[in-house]
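hey m, so remember when u said the tokens were messed up on ur end? i reran from scratch. heres the input so u can diff it against urs
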Amino acid sequence: MGMFGYDNVHYETRSRYPFEELNESKFIEEVIRHLFEDFRDGFGEYDFYIFSNHDINTIPESSTFETSRKKVLLYFSEEGGQDPVHLSEKYHAIFKSYIPKVSSSANVFPLALGYVKGVDELPIKPIQERKYNVFFRGNLNVSRLPFYKSFSMLSRLLPDTLRGKKFMIKYFAKWKSDYSHYFPNSIIYFNTSFKSGFTSSEYAEVLADSKIVLCPAGFSSSECFRHYEAMRAGCVIVSEKLPANELYIDSPIIQITNWREGLEITRKLIQDPVEMENIQERALSWWKERWSEKATANFIKSKLMQLA
């Protein structure tokens, strides 16, 4: 039994979560729809397998399947950034999120993360009509301690790492969670757990009304849904270094080596409306041409055509 009305689209039984629970489920469904529209008759030449698992050692069941169609794996959720070279011979092509560099296998390609379902696409506001200068709200995890420290006057008193001391994270966030005053007319707030801040609809509204969005690394990867949601909303994005692959090279994302540098760049951008307008224009073009559902489908199709 296929998915979305297509008999050649399948959800892997060894996926970690039911498909409906995936953050990116809406994005995936739209990508498949555009793939069908782009391919038409050629769509039926492939079997598409959607796989979501955090454990690189969990092998998708479809790797053992024998089929007359060309097998394509769409691999989500493994944030460790492992290159699935051990699966490359089992498929015609593999598209995987969270690949830190160009794969060593010629048939393995990066895959856009997309957006969290419920974070709706809202009308684009010109950058200077937006209410908030700078926006970040998210979980304070061990990877984000340097980001957190960059806002604090007591940063020298805070440890450089909390590896092995996860229990201390919630105390930092409770001790001081709100740094919105750091920039005028901004929201900078640290939560104590994942998805414990704004609702998805509230988050989408604030995002659409923000000029600059700060994107610190997630727990395991510098890539996160926030990049894609902010790009779609036409925000200026300041981020930690991203993978050197086709998804990010030459993108309008401002990539920084540390957050002291990042916050200083942010401060200067607030005073430069013309530059922010230029970046917004580039961001909206990048979303449409490189990261949107249709653009992702075009990317997948183009790689499959190269392998045909």
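this time it looks ok to me. DSSP finds eight helices and ten strands in the chain. if urs says something different then somethings off w ur setup not the seq
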